[in-house]
Model the fold of this input.
Amino acid sequence: MLFCQKEEIQINYVVVSIQSKQYKIFKGERIVVDNISKTPGEEIVVNGAEIAVVGGRTILDRSLLDSITSRLTVVDNYKGEKVIVFKYKAKKRYRVKTGHRQLQTLLEVAEISSPNINFDMEAVAEEVVKKEKVETAEGVKRMKAAPAGQGKAAAKKVQTVKGKPGAGAGTKVKSSAETTPRKTVRKKVEKLKITSQKPGTKKQAGKKK
Done:
């Protein structure tokens, strides 16, 4: 019988949530967060992670992410850089200048561990295969949808005759005389009658002898 030895996989980095903010951390890194009411030297434990990269592979399985525990040590509490806030109102002689320094805490990542860290590479491979299957299925759908759109565009081109849409090969293109309404034709005829009469053609009254 062959026994498959489990390899120890190192966690490259994780994304954790501290005080409703997400931070990308790895072992030995120092991060600056909003003020935490703890003295330097105390330890902070963060349970769970949003995303983890283990052995070069991205882990999205919630059961594995919930088992990750991050331990951070408080290094120092201090004030951040000053931010100047200046308010004014035009033509009101209102000028207010204030400054603000946010309280911050410096943390150092001491350890990132998980009881399920020594899982088989097959579990990670299955997660990757599932992701690849989903991506390939979406790609096939896009490929199927692309020719359908092109066919509709080609059909529209066939139906256009001399730049007029909707006129197919077997349809008859109406002339400009047929498309003009009857009222405009009557007005044109009346104008022609008026212009045909030459000036001075009115009947003159008979001269008296």
The mean pLDDT is 76. The first helix runs from residue 62 to 66. Residues 11-76+104-120 form one domain. The chain is about 30% helix and 35% strand.
